[in-house]
């Protein structure tokens, strides 16, 4: 599977770049993470031995493949949520092609609704790469579903710093979280949840 998965990742990188050059409407753009961001996510999942991973914003599943490959190595699973039917269909096909469908649960729903019905401390790692204007409104639920000692990773923290500023401020002001801005790809904001109540 390793060689085939690497070939599929490379194919999706080309597809995403070509698609996003040709398509102006945001709902039809893939807006995939960069390869070095995928590598970072893989390392973080493995380093934490994360077994319960949540991704908000599947797109065509490129980032999910990085998370799922690592989660398989830890004996874990990835739950990924995507609202757009077109992208969810692309992602489902890519998960099958990658041979990773058995460790991925694709939820076709609004992320806010998914978060509200999720149990406390349900996830070890949450990767947030979705509608940035929603993040502040999701914060209480994101904070709740992440286990103590869990990690939140937020994409586009440098490329869209102004848009992300209100959410980044919320994270920095929350004394339960320790944050770091990592200049990989489009910028990753990392926040570890403390173990105090």
Can you count the helices? 7
Count of structural domains: 1
Report how far the terminal alpha carbons are from each other: 42 Å
Could you say which structural class the secondary elements and strand pairing correspond to? alpha/beta
Strand content: 15-25%
The residue ranges in which pLDDT falls below 50 over 5 or more consecutive positions are none
Helix content: 40-55%
**Helix-strand topology string:** HHEHEHEHEHEHEE
Query: Largest sheet, if any?
Result: 7 strands, mixed
The CATH architecture can be named as 3-Layer(aba) Sandwich
Pfam family, one: Methyltransf_3
InterPro entries: SAM-dependent_MTases_sf (IPR029063), SAM_O-MeTrfase (IPR002935)
GO biological process, one term: methylation
GO molecular function: O-methyltransferase activity
């Amino acid at each position: 599977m390793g060689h085939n998965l690497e070939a599929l990742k490379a194919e999706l990188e080309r597809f995403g770049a070509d698609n996003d050059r040709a398509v102006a409407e945001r709902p039809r753009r893939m807006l995939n993470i960069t390869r070095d961001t995928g590598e970072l996510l893989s390392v973080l999942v493995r380093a934490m031995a994360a077994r319960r991973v949540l991704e908000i914003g599947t797109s065509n599943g490129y980032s999910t493949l990085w998370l799922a490959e690592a989660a398989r190595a830890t004996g874990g699973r990835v739950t990924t949520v995507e609202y757009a039917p077109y992208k969810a269909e692309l992602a489902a096909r890519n998960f099958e092609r990658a041979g990773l469908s058995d460790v991925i649960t694709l939820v076709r729903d609004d992320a806010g609704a998914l978060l509200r019905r999720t149990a406390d401390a349900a996830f070890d790692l949450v990767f947030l790469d979705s509608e940035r204007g929603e993040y502040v409104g999701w914060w209480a639920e994101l904070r709740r579903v992440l286990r103590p000692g869990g990690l939140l990773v937020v994409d586009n923290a440098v490329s869209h710093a102004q848009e992300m500023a209100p959410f980044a401020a919320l994270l920095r002001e929350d004394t339960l979280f320790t944050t770091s801005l990592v200049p990989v790809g489009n910028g990753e904001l990392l926040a570890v949840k403390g173990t105090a109540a």
